[in-house]
From TrEMBL:
Coiled coil: none annotated. InterPro entries: HIPP, HMA_dom. It comes from Populus tomentosa (Chinese white poplar). Residues 4-71 form the HMA domain. Belongs to the HIPP family. This is HMA domain-containing protein.
Length: 117
Protein backbone atom coordinates (compact mmCIF):
# COMPACT_ATOMS: atom_id res chain seq x y z
CA UNK A 1 0.00 0.00 0.00
CA UNK A 2 1.40 3.38 -0.99
CA UNK A 3 1.00 6.34 1.30
CA UNK A 4 -0.45 9.64 0.21
CA UNK A 5 2.19 12.16 -0.74
CA UNK A 6 1.93 15.94 -0.39
CA UNK A 7 3.74 17.91 -3.11
CA UNK A 8 3.98 21.70 -2.96
CA UNK A 9 4.92 23.40 -6.23
CA UNK A 10 5.77 27.02 -6.98
CA UNK A 11 3.72 28.16 -9.99
CA UNK A 12 3.09 31.42 -11.81
CA UNK A 13 -0.56 32.48 -11.42
CA UNK A 14 -1.45 35.80 -13.07
CA UNK A 15 -5.14 35.41 -13.86
CA UNK A 16 -8.13 33.10 -13.61
CA UNK A 17 -7.31 31.52 -16.97
CA UNK A 18 -3.84 30.55 -15.73
CA UNK A 19 -5.39 29.02 -12.61
CA UNK A 20 -7.89 26.98 -14.66
CA UNK A 21 -5.17 25.70 -16.98
CA UNK A 22 -3.03 24.61 -14.01
CA UNK A 23 -5.95 22.78 -12.41
CA UNK A 24 -6.95 21.13 -15.69
CA UNK A 25 -3.43 19.93 -16.45
CA UNK A 26 -2.84 18.44 -13.00
CA UNK A 27 -6.31 16.90 -12.70
CA UNK A 28 -5.69 14.73 -15.79
CA UNK A 29 -3.15 12.62 -13.84
CA UNK A 30 -4.24 9.43 -12.09
CA UNK A 31 -3.87 8.96 -8.35
CA UNK A 32 -4.57 12.54 -7.29
CA UNK A 33 -6.88 13.02 -4.31
CA UNK A 34 -6.72 16.78 -3.77
CA UNK A 35 -5.49 19.92 -5.55
CA UNK A 36 -5.29 23.30 -3.83
CA UNK A 37 -3.95 26.57 -5.25
CA UNK A 38 -2.88 29.49 -3.09
CA UNK A 39 -2.91 32.45 -5.45
CA UNK A 40 -1.38 34.89 -2.95
CA UNK A 41 1.73 32.79 -2.39
CA UNK A 42 1.85 31.36 -5.91
CA UNK A 43 1.81 27.74 -4.74
CA UNK A 44 -0.05 24.61 -5.75
CA UNK A 45 -0.49 21.72 -3.30
CA UNK A 46 -1.17 18.27 -4.75
CA UNK A 47 -2.08 15.32 -2.53
CA UNK A 48 -2.14 11.77 -3.85
CA UNK A 49 -0.13 8.85 -5.14
CA UNK A 50 1.70 10.52 -8.01
CA UNK A 51 5.32 11.17 -8.98
CA UNK A 52 6.18 14.86 -8.42
CA UNK A 53 8.57 14.89 -11.39
CA UNK A 54 5.73 13.77 -13.67
CA UNK A 55 3.58 16.66 -12.43
CA UNK A 56 6.29 19.24 -13.13
CA UNK A 57 6.99 17.79 -16.59
CA UNK A 58 3.30 17.85 -17.55
CA UNK A 59 2.95 21.45 -16.36
CA UNK A 60 6.01 22.50 -18.33
CA UNK A 61 4.71 20.76 -21.45
CA UNK A 62 1.47 22.72 -21.02
CA UNK A 63 3.50 25.96 -21.02
CA UNK A 64 3.33 26.60 -17.26
CA UNK A 65 6.51 26.92 -15.23
CA UNK A 66 6.64 24.94 -11.97
CA UNK A 67 9.34 24.30 -9.38
CA UNK A 68 9.43 22.07 -6.29
CA UNK A 69 9.06 23.65 -2.88
CA UNK A 70 8.54 20.50 -0.81
CA UNK A 71 7.68 16.84 -1.19
CA UNK A 72 6.68 14.69 1.77
CA UNK A 73 4.22 12.32 3.34
CA UNK A 74 0.68 13.63 3.81
CA UNK A 75 -0.21 13.71 7.52
CA UNK A 76 -3.59 13.84 9.21
CA UNK A 77 -2.62 17.10 10.94
CA UNK A 78 -2.38 18.72 7.50
CA UNK A 79 -6.08 18.06 6.91
CA UNK A 80 -7.08 20.15 9.91
CA UNK A 81 -4.83 23.13 9.16
CA UNK A 82 -5.83 23.55 5.51
CA UNK A 83 -8.52 26.12 4.79
CA UNK A 84 -10.03 26.96 1.44
CA UNK A 85 -9.74 30.61 0.42
CA UNK A 86 -11.46 32.02 -2.63
CA UNK A 87 -10.18 35.28 -4.04
CA UNK A 88 -11.96 36.76 -7.02
CA UNK A 89 -9.69 39.78 -7.40
CA UNK A 90 -7.77 38.26 -10.31
CA UNK A 91 -8.29 39.54 -13.85
CA UNK A 92 -9.99 37.13 -16.22
CA UNK A 93 -6.98 37.07 -18.55
CA UNK A 94 -3.35 38.22 -18.42
CA UNK A 95 -0.88 39.26 -21.13
CA UNK A 96 0.59 35.74 -21.28
CA UNK A 97 -2.83 34.22 -22.00
CA UNK A 98 -4.20 36.89 -24.35
CA UNK A 99 -4.98 36.10 -27.95
CA UNK A 100 -3.14 38.48 -30.23
CA UNK A 101 -5.14 39.91 -33.13
CA UNK A 102 -3.23 41.06 -36.18
CA UNK A 103 -5.01 43.20 -38.75
CA UNK A 104 -3.84 43.90 -42.29
CA UNK A 105 -5.17 46.75 -44.42
CA UNK A 106 -6.94 45.77 -47.58
CA UNK A 107 -5.46 46.55 -51.00
CA UNK A 108 -8.94 47.37 -52.20
CA UNK A 109 -10.44 50.50 -50.60
CA UNK A 110 -14.04 49.22 -50.91
CA UNK A 111 -13.45 46.07 -48.79
CA UNK A 112 -13.12 45.85 -45.03
CA UNK A 113 -9.69 45.02 -43.56
CA UNK A 114 -8.73 41.38 -43.13
CA UNK A 115 -7.87 40.11 -39.65
CA UNK A 116 -6.14 36.89 -38.69
CA UNK A 117 -6.76 35.39 -35.27
Amino acid sequence: MKLLQKTVLEVNINCMKCKKQLMKTVAKNEGIDKIAINSEKGTMTVVGIVDPAVLVNKLRKAGKMADFISVGQYKKEDKETEKTKHHDNFPSCCKQCEVVVIGFPSYYPDLSPCSIL
